[in-house]
Design goal:
The structure is a homotetramer. The first copy, chain A, is built from eleven helices and 14 strands. The first copy, chain A, has about 350 residues and is α/β, with parallel strands linked by helices. In chain A, the strands form three sheets. In chain A, strands 13-12-11-10-9-8-7-14 form an eight-stranded parallel sheet. Chain A has a four-stranded antiparallel sheet with strand order 2-3-1-4, with no helix packed on it. A two-stranded antiparallel sheet of chain A has the order 5-6. In chain A, strand 8, helix 4 and strand 9 form a beta-alpha-beta unit. The interface between A and B is large, with 40 and 40 residues.
Chain lengths: ~350, ~350, ~350, ~350
C-alpha cells in the first residue's frame, strides 16, 4: 500500500503523518519524492485499510493499493505520463524523439559529420560512446575524456543535446560536466551501485533493458534510481537474448512498449540498432516502434559505416538515415504525433 | 547450387538436362516446381561452377548459388514476391490482409456474429478453430465437423474466405471440403508428416512459426510443404517462447517480418493475439506489424470475449476490433498500402 | 480434487459412486484407470470438501487435493514409483537402465554390430530410428519397414528389447508388430493426435521432452497418453533450447530429473547425446544423470561414427561406449543402484 | 596466433622478441603473464606462420594457433589445469572442494553456527554475503563492514577460508583486508570495470556466470581479469535463465562443466543453490555436479533456514547439509577423487 502525500507538505508535517501511521501499528517507509509528491510505503492488507480511512488524514492526496514491487515507477502512483526533458528534446509528451549518432566517438571529424547528419535528419539528441563496455579486453575501449569533449563541441555546433554511456562512478563524474543525459547500458542494468550513483545526480538517465531482464527487473532498476531521488528516467528496449542467433543479434521485444506504458508512467524508447544488429532491419523496426507507441528511438549512424571502429554492421549510412527520418515522419503523422 | 529451368520445359527436356548434369559428374536432384519453373539442386562449389558455364545450357533460366538449406522457399530462387490468393484475399501483393474470428467455433450464433463483425471491420478471411490442440486432454477440443459446417455457412453469408487449423491427416481431409485455407499450428510446425500431407493438397496453407523455431527451421518447414508441390504458403509469426512470462504469453518477434521478406519470397503475416495473450496489447502490436511490413494480420475476436470457451483474455471485443480496423487503415494508408 | 477408488470396484459400483457425487452437485469426470485404480476428477474447493467426508464413501480409497493440471501422472494420485517393463528391462524400480544404439538403422551389418556392442556394454534396450524426422525434406528419412525388420532381427540375436520412434499413426501401426517400445520424439511432444494414438496401444511409450516444453507441458503430454488408457510411460529429458548455441546443440536440463520424480510417479531417463550434441560431453553427463537420480539413459552409439548417416558427431564409438558403461557402473554402485 | 615465451625471459629479451616480430610485419601485443610465461598475441594466418619458423626463435616456448577470442584463459595456451589455492583449499587439483555458508551474514550467532556446521561437513571455505545485490532497493542490503569482520572471526575460529561478493571498487577495497577470496556475482559478470579492478588485486576470484552469458562471454570475463594480471580465477556455473520458471529459479547448465574444462585450464565449480532455488533439488544436483567433473561446489546453508533474511527457500538445513556432505563423499570416492 502506498500513501501519496499532497504537494508542498513540510518536513514537520511528514514527521507528523509518520507518527500517526506508526500509531496505527505500521512501519511506514518514506520512498522519496515522486514529482513533488512524497510517497510513503506501508505493509497493509487492502481489507484492513478500509477501516482506517487514511484518505481523510490531512496531507494525504491518494492511497494506492499496489501489488507491484516497483512503487515510485508504477503507473498507479502517478497517473499522468512523466515527461523527461533533455535539452530541446522531450520524452513522454506524446512526440517522437530521435537520438542518433555513432556507436563510439572516434574522431573530431567523424563526430561532427555525424552530428550534422543527425540534426538534419531531425534528431534532437546526439549519442556517442566515450566509455565502451566491450566483450573483449583487447577491443577499442573508447576515447574517454577526449570523447566527452568532442561531444560537447558537436553539441555546441549543432544545437543537439548529448547522451553518453557511463560505466562506473569515475566515468559518471567525468560525464556530468560534458553531456546532457547519461546512459546505463544493458550489461549494467543490475549494477546496483551504478544505479544508485546515477540516482544521486541531476541529469536524466537513459536506462537500457538488460539482455535477459524481465520487465519487472527493468522497472526495479528504475526504482533503484528513483529511490535515490532522480526521477528523470527514459527506459530503452534494445533487444533480448533468445534462441534465434543465426540471423539477428538479439530479439527486439517490441510488445514491452505498450506494456511498460501501462505499468509505469516513465517514457520508453526503442533501440532497433542493437536489437537487430543488422542495418537492413533498422528502418522497418523503427517504423514499427513508433507505431507501437514508443516515445522515441535511438539509432546508430556513421558517416562511413564501413570504417566504424565498432558496430559498423548495424550503423546506418547517411542515406539510410535520411530514409529512416522520412519513414518515422510518415508513421508519426499518420498517428497524430509530432516528430 | 540451384538450377532454375525455363518455364514450360517438357519432361523429356528435363530428363536430357539431368543426363547432361550427370555427365559433368553431379547427382542432380529435382526439387519440384517453383511457380512454373522446375528447379534442380546440385552439390557444387561456386568456383567449380564458373568453368562449366551452365547458364549457356538450353532450358536453363538461371543458376543460383545458394547457401541456405531452404531452396524452393528462398528469395534467391524466386526474386519477386509470391502472391497467395484465398477467396477475395491476397497475401503478398503489397496490400494488408486481415484474418479475424474466434479462437474456436463454439456455436452457430457465436460464429455468425463474429463473421459479420469481421466483414464489417475489413477482414477478408474468417478464422475459427474446429479442431483445437489443447495443452490438457480435459479441455474443450473443438466441434470438429459441425464447426467446419458452421464456417462454410458463415462464409456463404458474409462473403469471407475461411481458414481453420488441421492437426492430422483425418482433420485435413475433413477440412478440405469446407474451408479455403488450412492452418498448421505452432505445435505442429515440425510435424513433418502433417507438412507433407498439406503439401499434397491444393489449398493454401497458413504456416505458423513454432514457439521455439529458428527462422531457418520455419523456412525448412515451408520447404517441406513446397517439396511436395504446394507453393501457396503464408508464413505467420505468432510469438516465441522466452524468459519473460510474467506479463505476456509469448514474445512477439516482429523483426522476422522484414528478415523473412529478405530470405524468402513467401508472404508473412503476424498474429498479435497469441503473441501477447493480452487484449490490451493487440492493437498497438497490430499497428507495429503493419509498419514493419507484414502482409497481413490474424487476430482473435469474439462477440462476447468473457464467454469464450478458449483464449477469452486475448480476444478483442467488437468495439476493440473496430478500433483495430481503424488503426490498421491509418498506418496502411500512411505507408501507401491498401487495407 | 481427485477421488481414487479402491481396486476391483465393479462398473455398477462406479456408476453408483458417480450418482452420489452428482447428488452432491458435482460433475464427476472419470479419468481412467491409474494402475488398477479408477480415478474420478471433481471440481471442488478443499474447504467445501471437508464437510462432505468423501473418504467414508464405500469404494473410495483416497481423496487427493490436487493443484496440478496433470492428474493421472501426478505423484499425489499414486505415491509409489511406477515401474515400466520393456522386455528384460525395467524403468522405475531403482535400477539404472541403459538404452543404446545408432541414431538411424542404416544396414543389417551396422545394426547387428551396434546391437552386439550394446549388449556387451550392459544395455537392455536397443534403439534405432526407422522413421527419421529430419529438419530438411532432402535428408535421409529412414529405412522404414526394412529398418523395423532389422531391429527385430537384432533383438532376436542379442536378447535386447527394442525401441523406435513413431511419427504418425501409420508408422505407429507398422512399429507395433516389430518393437517392444515406441518413442514420441521431441518435435511431436505436443502432437496431441499422436499422443492419443500411442495412448490406445499396449506398448510402453518413451516420451521425449519437447525442446521448449515446460515441465508442466511435458507432464500434460504424458497425461494425454494416460487419459487414453496407456500408463506405461518413460519420460526422457533430451536437452532444451536456450541462448547458448555456439558450443552445444542443446542445454541438458538435468534438474528436471529430481523435480519430475517429485511431481510424478513416472520414471524419467536422460538422453545426453541429443542434449549436448558432442561425443566428448556424453560420458560425463551420463555419469551426472545417474548421480542426479535418473532411472536410465538413452545414448547414441555407432560401430563407425564417422560413417553415420545422421548425428555422427554425437555418436559414441565402441571404445567410448565401453568407457560409458564402466563409468555408469561405478556411479551406480556408489549410490547403491543396480546397473 | 599466440606466442608463449619461455619462463624467466628478461624485459630486454621481451623487447628484443617484440622487435623481431615487428620486423616480420606484425603488431605484437603483450597479453601479460600466464603462470610465469609471458604471452604475445599476433594477428597471423596459420599458413603464413609455417614459413616463419617462429618456434626456432630464442625464448619462444610454444606457438599456439588460437581461434578463441579468449587467450590467457584458453586451454591451448596452458595445457595443465590451473590450481587456485584459497587458504587450505585448492581448486583444480582433482579434489572436490566445498564452499558453504549462508546467503547473507546476518549476525554473529548465525554466522558462527553456520561456520561450525560448514567445517564439520567438510567445507574448506565459508561463504557469506556482506554486500548483497538485491533486485529491490527496499530489500536487506547486507551488513557491509560488520559482516566482513564477522567472516574473519568465524574463519579464525573454524580454520575455514572465506569468500564474499564484492559489488564495486569500494566494497572490493574493504573486503581485501578481511577475506581470502572475492566473488564477482552473476549480475556483474560483464561489469568490466569491476572485472578489471579484481584483476589488479592479489586475491583469488570466484567468477560466477551471468544468467544469460554464453560460455564464450564467461571466459572473456575471465580474460578481462587475467589481462590485468590476476590469474587465480575459479569459474562458477549458477544456472541460466530459460523459459522454465514455474518450478525452478534457473536452469542448471551442468554440461558446461566438462565443456569449460576442455576450453580452459581454469577450475570450474557449481552452485546448485542459486541454480535451482529449491532446497529439495540441491543434493541430487550436487551429486550430479561432482559426477560431471566439477572441481567443487558452493552451497547455501543456514542454521535455521526459515529465519533467513534472504534465500531461505534454497538454504540447506544442518541435517540436509550433513546429507549433502555424505553424498558428495560417496560420489567423489567412486570416481577416485578426494573430498
Amino acid at each position: 500500500m502506498v500513501v501519496v502525500l499532497k504537494q508542498n507538505v513540510s518536513p514537520s508535517e511528514v514527521a507528523e503523518i509518520n507518527r500517526r501511521l506508526e500509531g496505527f501499528g505500521f512501519s511506514p517507509r518514506l520512498l522519496g519524492k515522486r514529482r513533488n509528491n512524497i510517497v510513503i510505503d506501508i505493509d497493509i492488507e487492502p481489507d484492513v485499510l478500509k477501516g482506517l480511512d487514511l484518505q481523510t488524514l490531512p496531507w494525504v492526496e491518494r492511497v494506492v493499493p499496489l501489488n507491484n514491487p516497483f512503487k515510485l515507477a508504477s503507473r498507479e502512483v502517478r497517473g499522468e505520463n512523466s515527461v523527461v526533458r533533455v535539452g530541446r528534446a522531450a520524452f513522454g509528451d506524446g512526440s517522437v524523439t530521435l537520438i542518433a549518432g555513432p556507436c563510439a566517438v572516434e574522431s573530431r571529424k567523424q563526430l561532427l559529420e555525424a552530428a550534422r547528419l543527425a540534426a538534419i535528419g531531425g534528431a534532437k539528441v546526439l549519442r556517442g560512446g566515450a566509455f565502451k563496455p566491450r566483450t573483449s579486453p583487447y577491443s577499442f575501449q573508447g576515447l574517454e575524456l577526449e570523447g566527452l569533449k568532442l561531444l560537447t563541441e558537436a553539441a555546441a555546433e549543432t544545437g543537439l543535446a548529448t547522451v553518453t554511456e557511463v560505466v562506473d562512478e569515475r566515468s559518471l563524474e567525468m560525464a556530468l560536466d560534458y553531456v546532457d543525459m547519461v546512459q546505463v547500458g544493458a550489461r549494467n542494468m543490475q549494477n546496483f551501485q551504478l544505479l544508485r550513483a546515477v540516482g544521486r545526480v541531476e541529469k536524466p538517465v537513459l536506462l537500457k533493458r538488460g539482455m535477459s531482464a524481465t520487465v519487472k527487473e527493468w522497472l526495479m532498476a528504475a526504482e533503484y534510481i528513483m529511490s535515490e531521488g532522480n526521477e528523470d528516467i527514459v527506459l530503452c528496449e534494445r533487444g533480448i537474448r533468445t534462441f534465434e542467433q543465426q540471423y539477428m543479434r538479439n530479439t527486439l521485444d517490441l510488445s514491452v512498449v505498450p506494456l511498460v506504458k501501462q505499468l509505469s508512467h516513465l517514457p520508453v524508447i526503442v533501440d532497433p540498432s542493437h536489437a537487430t544488429g543488422r542495418r537492413d532491419l533498422i528502418i522497418p523496426m523503427a517504423r514499427a516502434a513508433v507505431a507501437a507507441g514508443a516515445d522515441g528511438l535511438i539509432v546508430e549512424m556513421h558517416p562511413r559505416p564501413d570504417e566504424a571502429l565498432c558496430d559498423g554492421k548495424q550503423s546506418l549510412s547517411p542515406d539510410e538515415f535520411g530514409q529512416l527520418s522520412r519513414d518515422i515522419e510518415m508513421v508519426s503523422r499518420a498517428l497524430g504525433r509530432v516528430f
